[in-house]
Amino acid sequence: MPTAPAHKLRISNISAIIWRNSGDKGPWYSVQIKRSYKNGDDVWRDTDALADDDLLPAAKLLDLAHT
């Protein structure tokens, strides 16, 4: 059964997904950046490839994730 993210942040079509992990020294977190888009078939898809217009929203999301 997949675990749910600890938190998800979103600006426009860019998301930062925060995952809680467990280890010998206690919990730690990792962050995954994704961009959502619709292809020609009108189905939503995700990618980790960012365009130049995506960089500022991604940076803001990473700052929020760090906070």
What does this structure look like?
With 67 residues, the protein is of the alpha+beta class. It is 18% helix and 48% strand. It contains 1 helix and 4 strands, in the order E-E-E-E-H. It has one helix at 55-66, and strands at residues 7-11, 14-23, 26-38, 44-47. A 4-stranded antiparallel beta sheet has the order 1-2-3-4, with helices on one face.
- In DSSP terms (H or I, runs of 4 or more residues), the helix count works out at 1
Tertiary shape: globular
Spans of 5+ residues with little confidence (pLDDT < 50)?
Answer: none
> How many β-strand stretches?
4
- The Cα radius of gyration reads 14 Å
Which percent band covers the strand fraction?
over 45%
The total tally of domains equals 1
* Chain-averaged pLDDT: 95
* Adjacency order of strands in the biggest sheet: 1-2-3-4
Structural class of the secondary elements?
A: alpha+beta
Order of helical and strand elements? EEEEH
Considering DSSP H and I runs of 4 or more, what fraction of the residues is helical? 10-25%
